[in-house]
Structures are given as C-alpha cells and as structure tokens.
Amino acid sequence: MTLAASADDRLLVAGAVPDGLTVAFAREPADGAAVRFGDALVGPSDLLVAPAGERVWRRSPWPAADDLFSLPLPGAGATTLVVEPVASHRDEAAAMLRDRGVDVAVAERLSRAELERAATVVFLDDTAFPPLAPAVAAAGRLLILPAVEPLFGWQDGIDCLVGPDLARLAELAALAGRRPRAFDPIRAMGRLTARPYRASDLYSRLALDVSLGVGTGGA
Q1: What is the Cα–Cα distance from 137 to 158, expressed in whole angstroms?
Q2: How big is the chain by its Cα radius of gyration, in Å?
C-alpha cells in the first residue's frame, strides 16, 4: 500500500490502500502513477481527483479517515472553527461570530487537532465544494457550507447547513453556537452521508477502476 500525504493530511485521510495502488494528496511526491487528490497534476501519469477543475479523472471531495467515524460527538465548550485560505475573509467572519458571543477558532486549512476541538466547522471559500468536508461530517461535527454546486449528496437542513453569503453563514454558525445540542441530528445525518467517502472503501473503489482502466485510456 502507498499513501503519499503530509503528516497533517494523513490524519484526515488515513485508510487501507489496496496493493498496487498509490494515492497521493496535494503536492506530495509519489513514485510512478498515482491517484492524486488535489488541485493540479504533479506527475505526468497522475489521475486527478477533485471537486472541480480541469483535467480531472474523477469529481469528488477527499476521503475521510476511517477512524473519524468513531470519534465521540463534540462535548461542552467545543469551538466553532472557521476555515478559509484568505486571512481577511476568515478574520471578518470570526469578528462577526465573536460579536454574537460565539467562541471561534480560525484556520487557513483544516487540521485533525482543530477538527477534534470543534463542534461546528464553517467553510467560507465558495469556489467549489470543500475537499475536506467529508472529514468534518465523518467526525460528527456540524458542517456549514457556502452555496456551491454540486454538494456531492449533502442536503441543506438535513445533513449540513448552507448559506448564500458570509452574513448568512455567520448567522447559522451563531445559532449553532448558542444551541449546539439542537444540531446533533444533523451531525448524525452528516455522518451517514459521509459513509461513501470512508477512506478504505473509497480507495478500494478507485483501485478497481484503475485495474479495469476505467477512464484511464485502458478501458
């Protein structure tokens, strides 16, 4: 098995990789051809997997580490985590939430430690479905998303919350912060929606596709 990922990413995507398959994440180097979850090809033989973009082999968010599905639900005092690559955007959202009395943490990118400390995770980037959203849902954390298409099976008000703009996203996060236990049914449904993205299961399906040459020029 070969899983090429940074130390931080590995904790979010770990699972059993079938023999003969190499799975790489972001810009991590890999030997030979790899199924690569990221925003660009690294090797000439890579098969790119991403929610959106050019030259993709599969349109999909990233897998969720197997053990995320067994994490306990967040306890009292868990934070609201705002994830956004642009510092000014995440700081603006954090300020709006703090004004509403919400305990906020911010991150440029999701990490396992921050995920475990959170009760709610808010993604602000509205260019495409957040690649790490399945990890959030698998961990039983409330997932709040911008209005993007497609949502890869998630449904507003059932297994996640969706807002059309920053103000609405902040309102949803503030409501969740005030009444965290009221959103446990959505957390539970989100975990179910994330099941097809369980890392070991997703890697097995990808290995089968690669072995059959599906979409690779070998079919």
Answers
A1: 12
A2: 17
